[in-house]
Amino acid sequence: MPNLKDIKKRINSVESIKQITRTMEMVATAKIRRATDRIIAATPYATAMLEVLEEVSARAQNADSPLLRIHPEVKRVVVICVVSDRGLAGGFNYSVLRAADRYIQNMKEEGITCDVVVCGKKGLPYFKYRNIAVSLSFRDQSANPKFVQAREIASYIVEAYTSEQANRAVIFYNHTKNVAEQVTTTEQILPVDSYTFKDLSAEDEDAVYTDESAKAAAASQKRAFDQAREVVKEASLGDDKLRGDFDYEPSASTVLESLVPSYVETRIYHALLDSAAGEQGARRKAMKNATDNASDILITLKRVFNRVRQGAITTEITEIVGGAAALED
231 Cβ partners below 8 Å, 6+ apart? Predict the structure, then answer.
């Protein structure tokens, strides 16, 4: 059995770790709100872009945009993997990396080459260890993604697709289902087969929240998304008298071709923001679990410490009584 000094040293060590994990949990909780606010701010533009594209595509009967054209044979695929720059977020990074790796291996079995784009520092050593070349990488931006990053990625894949150097582009990231759960998501960016944005405001009835604050934050997030959607709906519909047909100059097809690259940028940026919010949610959950585990370990160590101390006291009393009895004899 360890002595009191060793047990006390371990108790102090666990208490220090608990303070760190508790602080990181509080920081992640504060960052979740900021990341969620950024998604809410980007939602009206994304929704408006979706509605405009649907409206224009319905009138562009003979649209022949290279980004809408489906290549009959797939020889090269651009794989975009969105992870974080920092760890301590549970299985947040591993789930995305494993899904992307599995997809790449499946493509190799079919004789298709994959061009990998990594967003996040944690993805670089993963692919390097597996001898998978990374063509384009971004780091130190996962918690605070910029639109410039999305534009650079979109420019890269659009150029590769229009020049037929790539025949498909897919993105892997963690979708923030709510503040307590993230879902590994795979989306096809190119070719643009349908104008659909993921409804981030959908409420998950089976979600398990770690505490009441997480549940309240999820409800607040849903209300904010609903309000943003209503604002966009009112702005797009307006008064019934304003409804009618539109004239496009020079043509609806030309307008559609100019809007599709912007849509690709918006879709990638939306995924980056979604992943950033999910990163903070995953880190908050991981740090809360670590804090709870540290509390359980402290309870066990203090129990062992008291048992060892009581045993030492009992031994000392026994020795004193035995020594006194020997002197009397």
Answer: 44
